[in-house]
Amino acid sequence: MKKLEDYVRSIPDFPEEGIIFRDVTSVLQDADGFRLAVDTMQEMIADLDYDVVVGAESRGFILGAPIAYNNHKPFILIRKKGKLPCETVEAEYELEYGKAVIEMHKDAIKPGQKVLIVDDLIATGGTTEAMIKLVETLGGQVAGLVFMIELAGLKGRERLKNYRMDSAIIYEGK
């Protein structure tokens, strides 16, 4: 029986020399790998009490939606600025070479709701920190964070140490 990390394609020296790129598309394009990813992440948060699932564009949608569906929870989208049709709240975060803005519908989270944030990968934690800001701006409480892959060398866990965080695969390097 294959382990989840057996489905992850590792690409050396991408996007630059010395970096090993962990490609999640190889997991998603294999039916067994995709099922294993969703099931593993779901098992990790089985004891978590939450009301809604939030996922960021685009791989957070792919992994978060089946978790929400399997647990009969609503799924909330976080998208890049300008992609949502109704009134939104936004959060800016740092990228390696600039800044980006993400948005969520203003009526997506009700005050006091417990929120599970799902994404494919945690690196420095900047995107996740922005997602947390959106949830908390609307009065939601972050119940937990779950990721398929954690790049421990980039210290995202340290940045988000005040939140419960689960990762299906942890790579020690960058």
Write up what this structure looks like:
The longest helix is centred in the N-terminal third of the chain and has 14 residues, at 31-44. Helix content is 26%, strand content 36%. Strands 5-6-4-3-7-8-9 form a 7-stranded mixed β-sheet, with helices on both faces. It has a two-stranded antiparallel ribbon with strand order 1-2. It is an alpha/beta fold and 174 residues long. It is globular, with a radius of gyration of 16 Å.
* Sheet having the most strands: 7 strands, mixed
Percent strand equals 35-45%
| Unreliable spans | none
**Global mean pLDDT:** 95
Based on DSSP secondary structure assignment, what is the total number of beta strands?
9
Order the strands across the largest sheet as they lie in space: 5-6-4-3-7-8-9
The arrangement of helices and strands along the chain is: EEHHEHEEEEHEHE
Overall shape: globular
Judged by helices, strands and strand pairing, the structural class is alpha/beta
Distance between the termini: 27 Å
**Helix content estimate:** 25-40%
Rg, alpha carbons: 16 Å
How many distinct helices?
Answer: 5
